[in-house]
Design a protein that fits this description.
This protein is an alpha/beta fold. The strands form 8 sheets. Strands 5-2-1-9-20 form a 5-stranded parallel β-sheet. A 5-stranded antiparallel β-sheet has the order 22-23-26-25-24. A 4-stranded parallel β-sheet has the order 13-12-11-17. The longest helix has 15 residues.
Length: about 400
């Protein structure tokens, strides 16, 4: 019986593309997703040639470290774990920094670079990441808005900080709150603007949002909620942000952190199906057998999960497939730790398409919010303050995101 069940779920090599390789595997992108695939594949296969193509410097670093590096005393240079040459040697792959892919020809199985060079492949892995959303703002100060989406952005941000004193952050989501806490802890005056009624509006019930706001306000963060930024003007060496309410504030530097958009343009131009991200199945495979995608650019079974843990699970599954063992990705419950030391926060977002409601306990020390369905099953949680100690126990009760 067990053997029959295994056979029924076995996936053929034909379904995931021809795994006999003559040409290299090409990984497009050198972020966490690209490096995770290369690293996992090298554990399984030391010989297959791998070429990593990347538009930036190609070094490896932990992107999540960028939002709390300032108060921890880390300079941008110390965040880099290894440059392209070091990583190429360590993983025994070829890394080509400052090299952009202009087109993918899935019929010829080639990628064409912006300089016209054409490279044949057996498999392509798209690990393109995502771009920061840019709001359609008006005013003479719009060009001064910064965003931090990679290490080069962060170097520019740190360079611009200089002797600045008052920083405005547009967006009270996860990244906005983390930067707000980091900047406030480093002694800056911080304003956070968001159209939501609370910080982390998409992740927390109102009680959790209120608790987080209170704790961040206690370290000096000022929130401007239920409004949007309409314009930014340069005035006497400063920037003036005017809100939809008509009020305004003065700032020395503006950081935008209003969300991410999966990078899909390259895939779309190649005829690959796009929805919210690059559409892939449980094999991380597009509709073309030899082209895969993972990370912030990918939509897996309708889910776009721009977090570290989904990337780790996807990379292990895809590496196994590329090494000759077709493997579907499985996502267990994957709690997100929010890096706000002023208010320790852990969230396991529920699937809100399943009918349920929050059950919230609040005291002076923390918030424990459990999202349960109509029959009482735990689907997600939000823990703040001292309640974060219940993370492991509650996580064990959650259903997997993808079985």
């Amino acid at each position: 019986m067990l053997e029959m069940k295994k056979t029924a779920h076995r996936i053929s090599e034909k379904e995931c593309g021809d795994l006999s390789m003559n040409n290299p595997i090409i990984i497009v992108g050198s972020g966490l997703a690209g490096y995770a695939v290369a690293r996992e594949l090298r554990k399984l296969d030391a010989e297959t040639p791998i070429i990593m193509l990347t538009g930036d410097h190609g070094g490896f670093y932990s992107k999540p470290m960028l939002s709390n590096a300032l108060s921890s005393g880390k300079m941008p240079e110390s965040i880099l774990n290894g440059d392209a040459a070091q990583m190429a040697s360590q993983l025994k792959i070829s890394i080509r920094p400052h090299c952009r892919v202009a087109a993918i020809n899935q019929q010829k199985q080639t990628v064409t670079l912006t300089d016209g060079e054409e490279i044949s492949y057996d498999h392509v892995v798209l690990a393109l990441g995502a771009d920061q959303v840019r709001l359609p703002l008006s005013g003479s100060g719009v060009e001064k808005i910064l965003s931090v989406n990679d290490l080069d952005d962060y170097k520019k941000f740190r360079g611009e900080l200089g002797d600045k004193k008052r920083i405005s952050i547009i967006g009270a989501g996860l990244i906005g709150c983390e930067f707000a806490n980091d900047l406030a802890a480093a002694g800056y005056q911080v304003d956070v603007i968001d159209i939501s009624a609370q910080p982390l509006g998409r992740l927390l019930p109102p009680e959790g949002g209120a608790f987080l706001r209170q704790k961040l306000e206690a370290v000096g963060v000022v929130f401007h909620l239920n409004t949007s930024t309409q314009s930014i003007e340069q005035e006497n060496g400063h920037l003036r942000l005017t809100f939809a309410t008509g009020s305004s504030i003065e700032s020395d530097l503006v950081l935008s952190a209003v969300g991410l958009l999966p990078r899909t343009q390259l895939a779309a131009a190649a005829g690959i199906k796009i929805n919210r991200g690059i559409v892939v199945n449980r094999m991380l495979q597009t509709q073309f057998a030899n082209i895969y995608a993972l990370g912030d650019c990918a939509e897996v079974e309708g889910k776009v999960l721009p977090f570290v843990l989904p990337i780790s699970h996807a990379a292990r599954a895809l590496a196994a497939t590329l090494a000759g063992t077709p493997t579907q990705v499985k996502y267990p419950a994957m709690p997100v730790i929010v890096k706000t030391p002023a208010c320790p926060t852990v969230v396991s977002p529920p699937d809100f398409s399943i009918k349920g409601e929050w059950h919230v306990d609040v005291d002076q020390e923390g918030v424990k919010a459990l999202y349960r369905d109509e029959v009482g099953n735990l689907l997600g949680y939000a823990l703040l303050g001292t309640a974060v100690k219940e993370k492991n126990n509650l996580s064990a009760q959650l259903p997997p995101i993808l079985k």
